[in-house]
Amino acid sequence: GVGFADLPNQVHRKSVKKGFEFTLMVVGESGLGKSTLVNSLFLTDLYAKRNPQGAKERINKTVSIETNCVEIEEKGVRLRLTVVDTPGFGDALNNEKCEESIIKYVANQYEAYLQDESGLNRRNIVDNRVHCCLYFISPYGRGLKPIDIKFMRSLHDKVNIVPVIAKADTLTKTEIRSLKARILEEIEEASIRFYQFTECDS
Questions:
Q1: Contact assessment for residue 105 and residue 1, using Cβ atoms and an 8 Å cutoff
Q2: Maximum distance among all alpha carbons in the chain?
Q3: Which residues share a beta bridge with 21?
Q4: Rounded to an integer, what distance in angstroms lies between the CA atom of residue 154 and that of residue 71?
Q5: What is the pLDDT of residues 61-114, one digit of tens each?
Q6: 76 phi and psi, to 5 degrees?
Q7: What is the Cα–Cα distance from 6 to 12, expressed in whole angstroms?
Q8: How many C-beta neighbours within 10 Å does residue 172 have?
Q9: What's the pTM?
């Protein structure tokens, strides 16, 4: 028989053979470099077919949800990456409820996964739950905007949020340090939980 000591290795081998699924959501206003960062993170052009919109269209646009899937293989390990993009977030004149469709999407994916888990088709489940949300914060303000706080607060108990200071390469090291400290302070004041990396040089 097979001993329990080998179980983690068996599970690991099975997972490696099957491949992994990861769903990354990117949220933030237009022009903060979201597409550029995602493309350079995964060395692929996920947004090749997209037509950039002018300012006029963006002002009247509601938030939409777009998903892009790509299969990445590295050292024999397959990753099915789904990037969920949210064009239109924060771009309209009135952003009162722009987070609602995003929250609904996240909830729907969890619901679908739970139904599959408890159903008969458990072997062929596709996990489309959002595992991580990169939330892009504008480097041009002096910290968080009300929309940033509202969005992160409404999603932090559903998804791992990673706040990203967008276009940080346009700031000096001193500016980055003080903006980061200010944002962390505001996040704490708003009681927002975000994903903390175990080993991260600050």
A1: no
A2: 68
A3: 80
A4: 31
A5: 568 898 888 888 877 778 888 999 998 888 777 777 888 889 999 999 999 888
A6: 80, 0
A7: 10
A8: 8
A9: 0.80
